C-alpha cells in the first residue's frame, strides 16, 4: 500500500513540475538509477545493473532531446556532456567496472546543482521542456 502511494506521489510531482523542476527530477532519477547500477555491478548482478543503466540512458536521451539548439552554445555543451556520459556508461558496463560510473555521477551531480541554483534564482522560470519530455519514476 505504502509503495503504491509513494509511486502515485512521485507521478503527481512529475506531472505538475515546472520545466526546471522536471530537469532536476530527471537528474535525481538518473543519479538514483546510476547508484543502483553501481551497487548491482559490485554484487555481480549484471541483469539488475543493465536494467538500471537502461533507465539512465533513457533519461540522458530525454535530456538530450529536450535541448533547444537555438539557445546557443550551452545546448551544444550539454549535448556533448550527455553523449560523454552515455559513452562512459557503456565503457563501464562493458568492463563491469562500477568505479567507471563515478565520473558520470559527478557530472550529473554538478548539473543538478547548477539547475537547482537556476531554480532558486528564478533564472529558469521561462524555461519549459518540449512536448513529449517524459521522466519515468520508479
Describe this structure in words.
The protein is mainly α. It has a single domain (19-121), classed as Four Helix Bundle (Hemerythrin (Met), subunit A), CATH 1.20.120.340. It has five helices and no strands. The protein has helices at 2-15, 19-42, 46-65, 73-95, 102-121. Helix 3 runs antiparallel to helix 4. The protein is globular, with a radius of gyration of 15 Å. 25% of the residues are buried. The model is unreliable at 8-17 (pLDDT under 50).
Structure keywords:
0% strand, mainly alpha, Four Helix Bundle (Hemerythrin (Met), subunit A), 73% helix, 138 residues, globular, single chain
Secondary-structure blueprint of this entry?
Blueprint: H1 2-15, H2 19-42, H3 46-65, H4 73-95, H5 102-121
Helix pairs in contact: 2-3, 2-5, 3-4
Amino acid at each position: 500500500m505504502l509503495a503504491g502511494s509513494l509511486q502515485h506521489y512521485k507521478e503527481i510531482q512529475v506531472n505538475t513540475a515546472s520545466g526546471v523542476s522536471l530537469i532536476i527530477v530527471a537528474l535525481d532519477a538518473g543519479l538514483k538509477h546510476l547508484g543502483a547500477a553501481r551497487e548491482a555491478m559490485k554484487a555481480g548482478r549484471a541483469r539488475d545493473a543493465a536494467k538500471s543503466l537502461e533507465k539512465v540512458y533513457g533519461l540522458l536521451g530525454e535530456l538530450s532531446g529536450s535541448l533547444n539548439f537555438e539557445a546557443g552554445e550551452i545546448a551544444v555543451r550539454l549535448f556533448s556532456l550527455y553523449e560523454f556520459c552515455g559513452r562512459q556508461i557503456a565503457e563501464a558496463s562493458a568492463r563491469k567496472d562500477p568505479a567507471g560510473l563515478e565520473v558520470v555521477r559527478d557530472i550529473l551531480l554538478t548539473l543538478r546543482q547548477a539547475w537547482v541554483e537556476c531554480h532558486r534564482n528564478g533564472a529558469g522560470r521561462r524555461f519549459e521542456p518540449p512536448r513529449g519530455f517524459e521522466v519515468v519514476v520508479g
